Amino acid sequence: MSQILSLRHYSHEVLSHSHEHAQLVFGLSGELQFEVEGRGSRVLRHHLAVVPSSSRHTCGSPDGSQCLVLDLPSSDWLKQQLGHHADSIQRLLERPVALLLDPAQGRLLNWLADSPINDPVIAAQGAALLLGSLACSHPAATAPRLPLAAIDQYIERHAAHPLQVQDLARLAGLSPARFHARFLAETGRTPMEYIRLHRLLLAEQLLRDSELAIGEIAARVGYSSQSAFTAALSRHLGMTPRQLRRDR
User: Fold this and answer.
1) Looking at residue 136, what is its pLDDT?
2) What is the CATH number of the domain that holds 98?
3) What is the mean pLDDT of each run of 10 residues along the chain (248 residues)?
4) Distance between CA atoms of 213 and 217, rounded to whole angstroms?
5) What is the pLDDT of residue 139?
6) Where in the sequence is the domain holding 153, given as residue range(s)?
């Protein structure tokens, strides 16, 4: 990624690729036919296409088009430039979406297209203005909360088996990295910490309410040995499984 903002001309030649950074494609003239991860859209004048990081996207313009392309720098750059708007923009970048700019954003886009955006100061500040405006005006920049009830049910159904962050991320339709960040922000725990806690809460319930052997309960909540299960429960509750069962 050489610079944040760039003017690009598209033709009938079809381009198909992916890249590690997210990208915003703003239409200036003509029509760009766009597809991101199988989801099609048209980038017209003052329209916007969101390309999440690592998403395969294909585009072409039979009659020619011009766009302003914003290649997103790192999340640290977003936080430095956008402050409290950074989280909204990161949520906007999670899924492919097409948006229509409002008149003020259209004027800002036109001004930037006529500016020397090869200047790093103008490019950085212009990109920050565009992103800040999007964070304020588009409801698509506000994502719904994570489906914690569905995540809890999934953990309970699969507690006996190895669980990874990507298993839960699929339930939310997010990449593992973005899911990890969102999950930590919403719950105060990492996904793996949450899985471990949920398993121990399930084990506590089984110890209190069933007559299953301790080794069987350990296996049902994903522990390969009774000793590892006993150590984890002791750290969590301050008592062993046998002590908990005696006190019920």
Assistant:
1) 82
2) 2.60.120.10
3) 86 88 94 85 90 89 94 88 86 83 91 93 92 76 73 93 92 85 81 92 90 92 92 88 81
4) 6
5) 47
6) 148-246
- Retrieve residue 156's tokens: 């309970």
What's residue 88's pLDDT?
Answer: 82
Please say whether the beta carbons of 182 and 146 come within 8 A: yes
Q: What is the CA radius of gyration of the chain?
A: 24
Neighbours of 216 (CB within 10 A): 12
Q: Which residues contact 119 (CB under 8 A, 6 or more apart)?
A: none
68 with 113: CB under 8 angstroms?
A: yes
* Residue 139, both tokens: 């409801």
pLDDT, residue 12, reads 85
Structure tokens given for 64: 């020619």
Number of domains in the chain: 2
Do 131 and 52 sit in the same domain of this protein?
yes
Q: Are residues 17 and 125 in the same domain?
A: yes
Is residue 88 located within the same domain as residue 56?
A: yes
Q: Say if residue 134 is in the same domain as residue 215.
A: no
Token pair for residue 106? 């259209």
